[in-house]
Amino acid sequence: MDNNLVKFNGSLVAPAEAEFLQDIIHLTKINGRFYTIENNQVKKINLYNSGLKELPESIGNLTSLSYLNLIGNKLTSLPDSLFNCKSLQILDLSINRLVSVSRKIENLRGLTQLTLSKNKLELIPDSICNLRKLQRLGLGLAKSFQLPSWIGNLKSLRDLYLDFEGIPFFPKSVENLTLQALDIVTQNSSDIPESLKYFNSVQWLGIHVHNLTTLPPLSEFDSVESFELSSEIGTTLPLEVIMLKNLKVIYLLGSIGQVYISGFINDEQTEKIIRILLFNKVDISCQ
Known about the structure:
11% of the residues lie in helices and 28% in strands. By secondary structure, it is mostly beta strands. It folds into 2 domains: 1-97, Alpha-Beta Horseshoe (Leucine-rich repeat, LRR (right-handed beta-alpha superhelix)); 180-287. The longest helix is centred in the N-terminal third of the chain and has 14 residues, at 15-28.
């Protein structure tokens, strides 16, 4: 046995990495295997819904860690040592209690996915722009927090997930992004500003609201091929969505079970409407 390795639950790892694993067991009383070891190094950590209130400083010992799942915990801050994990590619901090992120996030240059959804972020450092490999970003924003204009500098970004309450507007700089997918979660559809149009080059658009009343104009979203709409209250799907030029499929979730259509509809439009609505098994009411 390598003198620089110790046994941890039947696996050989460096003492510093074993220290972190032991710290987690102590903090969470977790049952079951929450880590993956390859070549005597901790590569993946899955602490989904573990009741974790703090991340131990020893996380910085995991220099080969590529995947860290901290979804559904009670974290209010992150230790600086986390930003020593320079092999990280996927970091998911969804559904925690974070209000800010350190500028040192830029040290994680290998990140391809960073998810901070379902938090209440009041401060997002522009140092995220230095994450040149970032392809997927999820942000949970505090009420009325403005999405920063520098987000348009994330040239590798392909998927953007935003949850917010009453965002004033989207910055025009998002037109610089080459997004493939945009997912929006908010309480009321009226909270979505008309500047949503700056994202009109996406191929996949998801809008998830509790209360569906009206949607901002979507007629410019000619690149959208798939559209997902979910609502707990409200049933109306605008005809302009169905008639988007390249739309192939709509996914209707929640309470949306009926579509109201008014005005003149030609044969081509009728065929497309029937094909899409039958896929979702909803009723059609013509007015």
